[in-house]
Each structure stands twice: as C-alpha cells, then as structure tokens.
Amino acid sequence: MPHAFARPNARRGSALLAAVIATALALAGCSAATGDTGSTTASTDGVVIEHAHGETVIPEKPERIVALGWMTPDIVAALGTNPVGIEEVWGAGESGYQPWFEDYVSEAYGEMPEIIPFTDDGPNYEAIKSLKPDLILSLYSGVTDIEYERLTEIAPTVPYIEGAWNPGTWEGMTRTVGKAMSEEAKAEELIGETDDLITSLADAHPEFDDKSFVWGLTLNEGGTDLGVYLEYDPRVRITEALGFTSTSAMDSFLASAEGDNWYTGVSLEQLYDVDADLFAAWGGSAEEGTYTVENAVVSRWAPIAAGSYVIYADAAKASAISAPTVLSLQYVLPGYVDDLAAALQGEPTIDGK
C-alpha cells in the first residue's frame, strides 16, 4: 500500500511533524461514520454533547475557545468567535496559519490567535491553560482518555464524536461546533452558503455530469499499488457534489478495504479494469506526480493517457480539500473546478512543490 499510514500525530518537532502529518493527510478523511454531529441536548445546566469519551456540559455560551487540530479553528472563527489559541497544522504557511484561516481572521478580527507549541507528550497543557479557555474543541484528533481527562481539568472539552481521527462530514462538524457555541442557526447558514457555492460551480460545468472519476494517491518509487479513496472520503464526496460520478469499480474498492479504512489499493496489474474519465490525486511533491503519470503501467491507463488528471502536491490545497470546512472550501473549490474542467479537455495539472 503506498504511503504507509499511521493515524496523524500532531506532536512532533517541526521537521518530523511535517513529514509525519504530510503522510497522514495523504490518507486522512472521513471514515464510514454517518452520525457525526454528536448527541446534543439542552439542559438547565447548559448544552450537553455526547462523544466517544462520555459527555461534556457547556454551561454557557463560550467566549474563550481553544481550537485544536484541523478544521475546528475554521468553524469557530466563521461562527463569530476568534479562537484564543490554535495548534499549527500541516498545510500552514510560513506564518503558522493556513492561508484561508489567516485571511478570514485578519479581516474579521484584526488579530490572530496564539499558536500553541507542540510537545512530544500530548497536548501542551500549560500553554492551553495559560490562555484561560472556557471551552476546548478537538473534534479532529486522537485525544486519549487520559488526555481528555487532563484537558477537562482546564475547561469543558469536546473531543472526537465517534472515533479517533474521524471528523465525520464537514457539515456534521459544523453543526457540532455550532451547538457547542450556541450558534446553531449560524452553523446552518454557513452550511447553506457552502452548499450554494458547490451547486453554483456544478451548474456552471454541465460537462462534469456522468463523467467518472477516481480520487487517489501518487505512487511511491517502486510501488506496485495505486492508492484510492472510498466513497465516504471527503474528496470523493465533494467531487461527486460537483457533478462527477465515482468509478464503477467503487464496489470492488470497498470490498478490498480493511477494517474501517477510507482508502484501499489497486494493483497496477488490475488498473486497466478501473473505468474512469478523470483521475485526481494528492502527492508529497510535484516530482511524485510526474513519477506516477510516467510510470510504464499508469501512463497507459485511460485518464492518464488522455491527460485527464489533477494532482496536487501543494500543502494548502491538499489540506483544504482533504479536511474541508466552510472556509477552506471557499478557498480551494473555484481553482479545483477550473483544474477539473481543464483536465477533461486534456490539459492536466500537477501543482505543488
């Protein structure tokens, strides 16, 4: 299987962090969960959110939110609160912030949240405590039972809802954060605006209708399998929402997947049996993209031979579509749609460093 996978670990020194999380994001996505909004009820004591580690009571509307990991900071900011602290995540620019988050927050709030330094021993409890949060959100994470208990000693904490490193859908996470912030109506408004964007882009490109696609990974040197994502992965869902249809080989992909993985591998020997008009992929570098499309077998696969492929190695683009939010989709989708349209005309994209 290309790009050997371990669950993301966002607690490393900067060089190792980039390498570990880049590999993880290549295989990150939504697992097969469907009930991803969490069980939330109103209470005389506040909002109660049930999750994988139990339940969290949020007694009143939070004002000082620490947003850990991917996705959550975007949603908190879009819902009207500038987080007091966030973790630096893969895909961030030199400033330490993802570009769409930085643009939005600098315009909306005029100042950026503090970046919480990583540690090798779990969440940076001291740095988090120093920010005096009244809510900690870490929905896209691998927070353990012990880490959760320590975080709750600082402030009410909402970890992942169903499983480690399973954010569910972008819509579900938006609703969960909206409930935690007592901003349910605003959350629905943001979801509606994002859906409208997706619909408008799809309507502008009727040529996408009924075109089949595969979303996957670039090859490692010497690799014999091409990594592909399954139907519940966010990249696949978004591309389908734009009008494309998943490959007819999806059933075989699902049958070959192990456990609750959202990806699998296709032997290069069987690649010609995978029907697709277009191939979209993420890779670690533009060189990996070139290596993939020039592979003796891959180069003869129909979408590659036709020049109908889009390969992103740019960290921001890869992160924006792999861990999508109401902010990141605004950032990435217009360009992504342009690249898809060009690819169908035989004008491929290999974009990245």
Strand order of the largest sheet: 6-5-4-7-8
Structural class designation: alpha/beta
Calculate Rg over CA atoms.
20 Å
Number of self-contained structural domains: 2
For CATH, the homologous superfamily of the largest domain is named as Nitrogenase molybdenum iron protein domain
- CATH C-level label of the largest domain: Alpha Beta
Order of helices and strands: HEEEEHEHEHEHEHHEEHEHEEHHEHHE
CATH topology annotation of the largest domain = Rossmann fold
Short description:
This protein has 353 residues and is an alpha/beta fold.
How is this structure best described in words?
With 353 residues, this protein is of the alpha/beta class. The model is unreliable at 1-24 and 30-35 (pLDDT under 50). Strands 6-5-4-7-8 form a 5-stranded parallel beta sheet. It is 36% helix and 17% strand. A hairpin with a 2-residue loop joins strand 2 and strand 3 (54-58). The longest helix is centred in the middle third of the chain and has 20 residues, at 184-203. The chain has 2 domains: 14-28 and 202-351, Rossmann fold (3-Layer(aba) Sandwich), CATH 3.40.50; 39-182, Nitrogenase molybdenum iron protein domain (Rossmann fold), CATH 3.40.50.
Topology (elements, then pairings):
Blueprint: H1 14-26, E1 39-43, E2 46-51, E3 54-58, E4 65-67, H2 72-78, E5 85-87, H3 99-108, E6 114-116, H4 125-130, E7 135-137, H5 145-152, E8 157-158, H6 170-180, H7 184-203, E9 212-217, E10 225-229, H8 234-241, E11 245-246, H9 250-256, E12 263-267, E13 278-282, H10 286-293, H11 302-305, E14 309-312, H12 315-322, H13 328-344, E15 349-351
Helix pairs in contact: 6-7, 7-13, 12-13
